[in-house]
Amino acid sequence: MGKSVFGGATPLSSVPAVQPRLEKKGAAPVLFVNGIRTSLTRQADALEDIADALELPVVGLHNATAGAAGDVLQTLQDKINGLASDLVSHSITFDTAMFALHLEPVVAWLGTTDLSGNLAVASLKKVIHDQLAAGQPVHLVCHSQGALITARAIVEARAQLEAELSPVEVVKAIRTIRVESLGGVATTWPDGPQYVHYVNEMDLVTRAGLRQPTHVRPGVGARIVRFSDDGKGVTSSYPPHSPLTYLRHRVAD
């Protein structure tokens, strides 16, 4: 994305990545999904710092903001849709789902009804599907609400692939997805991708994510990196939650 804006239907290969000052030669671009209260300009500016922190080229998939209240509401709706989609696709069961009640008809309706209307989910689903269908791996880095968007998009992309490929081919394709979540508020992740989840114990936002003591499912084989960092030196309205604070603790590839 950088300083240019492309439509959601644009192939990933057609979007120029923001280049880091110290680039790993031949590295494929990382797709970064932002959290709440992030304007297009703010994300474009942040991508340069994120590319430098990752030492990888980065393309931003923009999660548009509707203001603080609107973004929080959309996040809650994304959570509900994500949980319902996981249940419908059998990624999780009623026994492990939050508020595990016998509400199959309601859950089935929620799994097919997009409460949030989050266009970023549809855009990311298309990118994931198209990359995997072409035999290309996908590397995703997501922050805050971006984690919910990413988890939902993976579930929906996998459902589309299941209608096109054999079960063995789907499993093989999904395994080529790499996900790094930074202070994510998603509590359930579909099995298959390679996950590293970063949790800052000083970030209050993560209490809505994998810091919850129960009802969390980070994905089979996921690595959770926990640390405590107040974000000193990071310019942000809430430094402990800034993606740049998280990237200071990124583990080596």
Q: What is Rg? A: 17 Å
Number of helices: 7
| Helix percent band | 25-40%
CATH architecture: 3-Layer(aba) Sandwich
Please write the string of helix (H) and strand (E) elements: EHEHHHEHHEEEH
Overall pLDDT score: 80
Low-confidence stretches: 90-113
Q: What's the structural domain tally?
A: 1
What structural category do the secondary elements indicate? alpha/beta
Main sheet characteristics? 6 strands, parallel
CATH class: Alpha Beta
Q: Give the end-to-end Cα distance, rounded to a whole number of Å.
A: 24 Å
Strand content: 5-15%
Number of strands: 6
Output the strand order for the largest sheet. Answer: 2-1-3-4-5-6
What name does CATH use for the topology? Rossmann fold
Shape label: globular
Keywords:
253 residues, 6 strands, 6-stranded parallel sheet, 7 helices
Description:
There is one protein chain. The protein is an alpha/beta fold and 253 residues long. It starts with 29 loop residues before the first strand and ends in a 6-residue tail after the last helix. It has one domain (12-247): 3-Layer(aba) Sandwich (Rossmann fold), CATH 3.40.50. Helix 1 links the parallel strand 1 (30-33) and strand 2 (58-61). It has 7 helices and 6 strands; from the N terminus they run E-H-E-H-H-H-E-H-H-E-E-E-H. Helix 2 (67-88) packs across helix 3 (104-112), helix 2 packs parallel to helix 5 (145-162) and helix 4 packs across helix 5. It is 36% helix and 13% strand. Strands 2-1-3-4-5-6 form a 6-stranded parallel sheet, sandwiched between helices.
